[in-house]
Amino acid sequence: MKATKNPKYDLRYHYRKALELGMVGALLIVTSSFYIFRGDYEYQLKVDVPEIKIEVEDIPPTEQIRRPAPPARPAVPIPTEEEDVPEDETIEETTELNLAELPPPPPPPEDDLSEESYQFVPYDEPPVMIGGMEALLRVLEYPELARKAGIEGTVVIGVLVDEKGNTVKTQVLKSDGTKLGFEEAASRALMQMKWKPAMQRDKPVKVWISVPVRFRLSDVS
Predict the structure, then answer these.
(1) What is the mean pLDDT of residues 23-31?
(2) Residue 21 confidence (pLDDT)
(3) What value does the CA radius of gyration of the chain take, rounded to a whole number of Å?
(4) CA 40, CA 37: separation in Å to the nearest integer?
(5) 209 has which bridge partners?
(6) Are 177 and 183 in contact (CB under 8 A)?
(7) Are 176 and 155 in contact (CB under 8 A)?
(8) Which residue has the higher pLDDT, 23 or 83?
(9) Which of 12, 92, 183, 193 sits 20 to 30 Å CA-CA off 177?
(10) Interatomic CA distance for residues 205 and 160, integer angstroms
């Protein structure tokens, strides 16, 4: 007859029960934890950003300090080997002024025209040069310096023609600007000209006219 073990004293039986109870307990703990901590959690990262404030300050303009000029260097005496050194001289002050010794004023230029000559005289017919420009070119002298340099020019000369058709005075109205003698040559030539005087109705009158004189190298013989 085979003997049977009492479950009360069987270690395998108790071990199996303990294992089963442990597993059930563990499942209960895990399940309970799942239900307890179940839920959606949002994790937010909070970063504290410092607030930056920009302040604008008025910067005053730079002021340049002007320094005074340095003082002049003192004069340094230079030794000399000469024994004769002139002493300091003083200039005598005088307040007397002798007006009798003043030179007389310079005379007016010869080519100045009187106020009477400048008066405008109306005329019906202007003066006409006898022989025309051909007669003027026959007595017109080309300045030697301008001829050698190959320079031409034009000047305007004012001519005062009297009642008898003579040239009384001349005046340069427009210069050539080269200062080669064109003005003087034209004035000399016009002083030799004869004119048909200007007429005011049936009466000859003394008047001013302007004559342009052109110097051309082609006219030089």
Answers:
(1) 81
(2) 81
(3) 64
(4) 9
(5) 159
(6) no
(7) yes
(8) 23
(9) 193
(10) 11
Q: What is the DSSP string of the chain?
A: -PPPPPGGG-HHHHHHHHHHHHHHHHHHHHHHHHHHS-S---------PPPP-----PPPPPPPPPPPPPPPPPP-PPP-S-S--PPP--PPP-----GGGSPPPPPPPTT---HHHHS----SB--EETTHHHHHHHHPPPPHHHHHHT--EEEEEEEEE-TTSBEEEEEEEE--SS-SSHHHHHHHHHHT-BEE-EEETTEEE-EEEEEEEEE-GGG--
Is residue 140 over pLDDT 90?
A: yes
Q: How confident is the model over 47-62, as a mean pLDDT?
A: 70
Nearest-angstrom CA–CA distance, 192 and 215: 17
Residue 215 CB contacts under 8 Å (≥ 6 apart), including other chains = 140, 142, 143, 146, 152, 153, 154, 155, 182, 185, 186
C-alpha to C-alpha distances, 138 to 133, 141, 145, 158, 193, nearest whole angstrom: 9, 8, 19, 20, 11
Contacts with 140 (C-beta within 8 Å, 6 or more apart), sequence order: 185, 186, 189, 213, 215, 219
- Mean pLDDT value of segment 147-174: 94
Taking the model in full, what pTM does it have?
A: 0.48
Give me the percent of the chain exceeding a pLDDT of 70. 60
What's the CA dihedral at 136, 189, 108, 160 to 10 degrees? -30
Residues for the chain: how many in total?
221
Token pair recorded at residue 159: 């001519």
Residue bearing tokens 């001349």: 170
Q: Measured on CA atoms in the order 114, 119, 123, 126, is the torsion positive or negative?
A: positive
Mean pLDDT of the 101-129 span:
63
